[in-house]
């Protein structure tokens, strides 16, 4: 298929539910997606979720919100550069919407991250591995361990990526069950990984789950929209991933310098050592340019004697990597559309190698710093503690849970319901709507009791993972009786 027709196919205005506003162009539809994300509560909550440093009082240090804004700017920069190279092959409206779709996917790429980032993900995974099997067996009175494992996969593989997809397609319930009702192009651009939780790893982009079983029908409808006969990464998702990699590798170091956890000159020296130790040819012009920038920031001036700051270094590196990614995208367009390209920033080439050097430095000196570790350990304890406190909701029978949702004092057997109704009163109404809607879709299933438990567990995890860092900590302390 000619590339022009391929872009006509992937730049689609189709939504999960047909829009009530008619007559809009592809440009206004793509801008509508961006607005829906920007004005959503889940996006605003990112301002109090950590990028690296939780509950940080220094406003100059990035939160998930400021990180997401920077990723969106880089995504837009890359998209503009790609469109400049595709000029004449794409219509003007296609170029504008192409950039808008990328920007929006970048804006909400972290919207599903739980409090305390990757430690929060690990806490949820570990809690369900330790407790999930016992909970589902008590709730369903089913002793067969093997038969219930399938319904626990979403939580064994809990991750911010599938949770983010769930947030925008389900949990941001405005008027109905379609969440923000984004275009399928924007949703496809968000899917960094293409495997459902519980499925086996099988090829590229399956090292993590990209979506939960509860959203598998939505992903299937997206694949049908774009004519994918098998799971594959969407072309715009490559750009979103590249923008994220460029942004966080540089910004994590910059924030560490801002917090004075590391000393800038020694950090640059070590990063330079990591980078120059690769086997890339010295004649590589990109390697030469990056090496010159490292030398300039280390010395505080360029070879011509002009002042060169860390901001100059970041700007130079961003511009160099964006240009490289745009060129790579056009060069390997066929592989991108087939979903067979591994990455736009491979570590075997200089742009990927400098990002890996930045990651290696941060792994060795930043992420393991005592101040980071102490906060993450506290967050890990808070999230596990919250799940322990909500555990009674996961061990109740389906019938008893239904009574608790209606604030009844006793279940059908006359057993007293005390704590469970009070816990559920804290849950957002939209999340409970999502749970109840899911029940309506499984009523005729033979395994409906297990699917109900899966939906109930999602309800608990939706609440916990949607919390900000500070709210998770204070809620845990309040429910534990440590504070009022």
Strand order of the largest sheet: 1-2
> What is the makeup of the main sheet?
2 strands, parallel
Classify the secondary structure makeup into a structural class: mainly alpha
Per the principal axes of the C-alpha atoms, what is the gross shape? globular
Query: What is the typical, i.e. mean, pLDDT?
Result: 93
What is the rounded distance between the termini? 64 Å
What percent of residues adopt helix (DSSP H or I)? 55-70%
Q: H/E series, N to C? A: HHHHHHHHHHEEHHHHHHHHHHHHH
Total beta strands: 2
Strand content: under 5%
| Computed Rg | 24 Å
Tally of DSSP helical segments:
23
Low-pLDDT runs of 5+ residues are none
Oligomer: single chain
Could you explain the architecture of this structure?
- The chain is mainly α.
- Helix content is 63%, strand content 1%.
- The protein contains 23 helices and two strands.
- Strands 1-2 form a two-stranded parallel ribbon.
- It is globular.
- The relative contact order is 0.13.
- The model has no long low-confidence stretch (mean pLDDT 93).
Key structural traits:
484 residues, mainly alpha, two-stranded parallel ribbon, 23 helices, 2 strands, globular
Summarize the structure.
By secondary structure, this protein is an all-alpha fold. Helices cover about 65% and strands about 0% of the residues.
Give the SSE map.
Blueprint: H1 3-10, H2 26-38, H3 41-44, H4 64-86, H5 92-107, H6 117-140, H7 145-148, H8 153-156, H9 160-171, H10 184-190, E1 195-196, E2 209-211, H11 216-226, H12 235-258, H13 264-276, H14 285-299, H15 310-331, H16 333-338, H17 350-365, H18 370-395, H19 398-405, H20 419-424, H21 429-441, H22 448-465, H23 469-479
Parallel strand pairs: 1-2
Helix pairs in contact: 2-5, 4-5, 4-12, 4-15, 5-10, 5-12, 6-18, 6-22, 10-11, 12-15, 12-17, 13-14, 13-17, 14-15, 18-22, 18-23, 21-22
